[in-house]
Amino acid sequence: MTIVQLETFLKITETGSFTAASNTLGYAQSTVTTQIKQLEEELNCLLFERLGKNIVLTLEGKRLLIYAQKMLQLEREILLEVPKSEDPTGILRLGVSESLCYNILPHILLEYKKRFPKIVIELQFITHDTFPSMLKQGALDLVYTLNPYIESPELVMLHKKPETLGFYASPEYPLANRNRIKETDLENIPLLLTSHSCNFRLMLIQDLAKYSVTPKIGIETSRKEILKQFAINQLGVAFIPDMVAKEEIENGSLKRLDWGGNDFAIFSQIFIHKDKHLNSAIEGLIEIILENTNENIA
Q1: The predicted structure's pLDDT at residue 115
Q2: pTM surpassing 0.85?
Q3: 3-state class of 68 per DSSP?
């Protein structure tokens, strides 16, 4: 069993086909097939079932998937930590909430690349319900998320900063010039909300229910740009993190409503798995985040 074989196995599960995996890895398809055959012979089991043109993991393949992810994570940690060099090298897999990419994260990553030019960052958008298992499996090394406060025995929080949510509409929208808007004022107002898997939406729906307000959903999408464009065009009120709308507030295309209802407590938070080694590459990224947010580690 080799790291190359495990990498090929993971790429097949990721892409869903031997052909796509071979194209991504730059191997001939016969090479990919041979690597998996050798792995299956060594483990004395089938890893994939071929169902027509589709392939699915067998039960044994699903078991191997967990260990293969950990093995590749250990390989990345070895490359980051073992070579004696003033500049760490290797891959850092970062999971991030989309909202953090509008203003904060690009500046952080630019500075990180200046200080750690040999580190390759693989960036992946995450949701609150999937990232803990991805950290546990080794699919991610670090998560930078925007969410309500998260507590889990499996996770270690390395940073926490209070953030805010707001209601946004076109300056010409009827509610834009009202003072102290509350939950009952949102009755029959088209709400432009994030998707079902997002905690922001859930927080608002639960809050409105306390006041017997039935939400009128104008649109639901994880794409904040779409929510902002709908609001700009007077198609409703967008409920989004304040950090996402800074540019539109500055150019006057959106206005933050004067909200007088309940608060929605959210935080930018950084997590690793409790068993994860805090290496110099991760410590360097956290240090830069602290510098850019003027906060201390929680």
Answers
A1: 92
A2: no
A3: helix
